[in-house]
Amino acid sequence: MIYPIVIYGHQVLRNETVDIDKNYPELDKLIEDMFQTMYNADGIGLAAPQIGLSIRLFVVDLTPMADEDESSEFMGYKKVFINPRIVEYGSEEDTCREGCLSLPGINETVKRPKKIKIQYLNENFESIEEVIEGFKARAIQHEYDHLEGKVFVDRISPIRRQMNKSKLSGMAKGKVRCHYRVKTA
């Protein structure tokens, strides 16, 4: 099932999320549906709040970021993060342009730590702790923010936020156009 993507302005994007356990109803189907929803919208990550669920779950597939070279670090980087917690942020930061399926048409430069240590459960409920760096860490932090009730425009400068105010206001009022199904406030 392809879910509509929740658009900026909808309360679920600001809600607190809760941990889930392996008895969460139809979890395997939900995970597959999240990947399909993400692919349908040409995304590389999707968090449960973006489909209207206030649970600590997100998926990432960076394979589309891989170049033609099959040795690319992004090739086959497809992961499920259940109940994740970033337990450490590196001190070194970098900036990169980000966009979001919940904020179509807005791309801004965001500063984030280059390295993180994250603990999570995979789709088999195996506990994992790993250090992740570079663009992978950025993508994971972006999706993790959704679980914390944040979106990437919360991390841009006040002047850039002001420059996007009319777009953000329009989204919050349901004025949005994109090639995938959406759910507005």
Structure description:
- This protein is α+β, with helices and mostly antiparallel strands.
- The chain starts with a strand and ends with a strand.
- The chain has a five-stranded antiparallel beta sheet with strand order 2-3-4-7-8, with helices on both faces. It has a two-stranded parallel sheet with strand order 1-9. Strands 5-6 form a two-stranded antiparallel sheet.
- The radius of gyration is 16 Å and the shape is globular.
- Strand 7 (115-121) and strand 8 form a beta hairpin.
- The protein is built from four helices and nine strands.
Question: What's the short story on this structure?
Answer:
The two termini are 21 Å apart. The strands form three sheets. The chain has a five-stranded antiparallel β-sheet with strand order 2-3-4-7-8, sandwiched between helices. A two-stranded parallel ribbon has the order 1-9. A two-stranded antiparallel ribbon has the order 5-6. The chain has 185 residues and is of the alpha+beta class.
Summarize this structure as a short list of keywords or feature phrases.
23% helix; 4 helices; two-stranded parallel sheet; 9 strands; five-stranded antiparallel sheet
C-alpha-based Rg, rounded: 16 Å
Content-based structural category: alpha+beta
Number of strands: 9
- The succession of helices and strands, N to C, reads EHEEEEEEEHHHE
Strand content: 25-35%
Describe the global form: globular
**Distance, first to last CA:** 21 Å
Q: Unreliable segments (pLDDT under 50, ≥5 consecutive)?
A: none
Mind summarizing the main beta sheet?
5 strands, antiparallel
Number of helices, counting only DSSP H or I runs of 4 residues or more:
4
Numbering strands along the chain, what is their spatial order in the largest sheet?
2-3-4-7-8
The portion of residues assigned to helices is: 10-25%
Could you tell me the mean pLDDT?
Answer: 96
